[in-house]
Amino acid sequence: MLVKCSSHVEFKRFLQQQIPLLWAVDSERLESFSRSLIKVWFLNLDPAIPLLSRCFSSMGRPVLYDPVCILKSCVLMLDLGYHSVTDWVKALRSDDILAVLSGFEPHKTPGVGTFYDFFDRLWLEDRRSRIKRWRKLRSPIRKPGKKFKTGQKQPVKHPGAVGKLCKRVKSGRLPFPLRAERLIQEIIARCFVDVSDHTGLIPDPLNLVLSGDGSSLRTGSSPDGVKVCDCRKKGIFNCNCKRRFSDPEASWGWDSYRNEYYYGYSPYVLTAASSVGELPMYIRLVQACRQIFNWCCFFS
């Protein structure tokens, strides 16, 4: 049960109380976090409060940690170069500065399970469907043998797909109504895109220039999967039996920049080309086997 989310004004008041105490302990080290302090001071996540409230029930045991602070802590984690939740949790517990910048009381920080529970709530996918897909046995995913030339993209498997999506949008239907990441995209839109528009970072939103590009994201899972058969006991070590995969959505894709195949996903980002620093407007993560094209579009 979600009791209350702290506002940005309350977070600033919390920093004003804690920063002098941290300064008295180690002023030089606190000064080394000045860049992160400025970021969280201006990071207003109030528009995300009604969105995050949908993820929690109105009944049951109250949550121990504010979801807004957890979201702020995730932003701070990536800003400081942490890519492991376990390492970040250890850093929060051992470093009072990181805990305070995240909005937590020193020595009262969330654990690893709390972060992953938060991620599950943000990812709007039926848990049973996810477990069923993870338990489903699949054939081994072999690395493609055909290579392409330098800078050459993979051929289009389904020509005309973009035109069909455009027709759906024009008819008033959402092209991806059940996409699991829709809550994350809405948080990005309300907390970052709208704020960039209101502060003038996007000069002319009525004449918007969007630029799209994709990249490669390698996953830590194995494309060989985990064997569940008894072929090894029979002396068969190179079998093609179906296996279980820890990341069933990952696939092989071609990285035209590095001229090599990779196993994972393709992040796709739409940026406002006419804005300051080309601000990201829309982020989507698709399978690596999907073809990504560079394009530019004008809206007026």
Order of helices and strands: HHHHHHHHHHHEEEEEEEE
Strand content: 5-15%
Radius of gyration based on Cα positions? 23 Å
Largest sheet: 6 strands, antiparallel
Q: How would you characterize this protein structure?
A:
It is a single chain. By secondary structure, the chain is of the alpha+beta class. The chain folds into two domains: 115 residues, no CATH class; 158 residues, no CATH class. The chain is 38% helix and 15% strand. Strands 1, 2, 5, 6, 7 and 8 form a six-stranded antiparallel β-sheet that branches. A two-stranded antiparallel ribbon has the order 3-4. Helix 1 runs antiparallel to helix 7, helix 5 crosses helix 7 and helix 6 crosses helix 7. The longest helix has 18 residues. The protein starts with 7 loop residues before the first helix and ends with a strand.
